[in-house]
Amino acid sequence: MLKELAExxxxxxxxxxxxxxxxxxxxxxxxxxxxxxxxxxxSLPGTLVRKDESLEGAAQRILSEKIxxxxxxxxxxxxxxxAEKKNSKGQIFTYLSISYFALLRYENxxxxxxxxxxxxxxxxxxxxxxxxxxxxxxxxGYQRLRNKLEYSPIAxxxxxxxxxxxxxxxxxxxxxxxNFSDYSNFRSRLLKMGFLNxxxxxxxxxxxxxxxxxxxxxEAFAPLKDHPLVFI
Length: 232
Hints:
Blueprint: E1 8-20, E2 25-32, E3 42-43, E4 46-48, H1 55-66, E5 67-68, E6 73-86, E7 92-105, E8 110-111, E9 118-123, H2 134-151, E10 162-163, H3 165-176, H4 183-193, E11 196-203, E12 211-216, H5 218-221
Parallel strand pairs: 1-7
Antiparallel strand pairs: 1-2, 1-4, 2-3, 2-9, 5-8, 6-7, 10-12, 11-12
């Protein structure tokens, strides 16, 4: 005798990080729920996948509904399963969450004002209690973000085209913590790797010597993409 098949719904939950390297802050976008369950709790922006919609399409849709930003970094994170929910008719189903994480610059991200719900940037150091398994998803996304910094050029997706070494260092400090590496060691390792091009231009910021401006060279980085950078 065949057992009854489980009924599933597939949804997408986005962990959207923004980096404010100037003030050394890392934010995540949270959305306050208006309906049960977890009414009034904060959660990650999410949605059920629509008919004939791809998973990435659903993730991009949620991102565009909450934020106005150009070319954010977006990557599939993990599949979380097992949570039981009820639909509007009271029927119980199992919710499969396909999570994505995005990374963008705080100053370039503008929240989209909607007549429903409240979306807010929360500092990762001061998070409220989250609905469902969203704290677990967020923690997983944060760990993935930290790991990505070691072996991928993800940092250059949120930096301007031209940047100083201190700009890059501050971004790493914001995400990994201020004690991840001293600046001198960070600087010498980066320059030895050969994927930063000195543009010959400099920028003045207050008192002190002008800082050199660099540009990321994706072609020079390609041979290093499978090797940890290990700045720590």
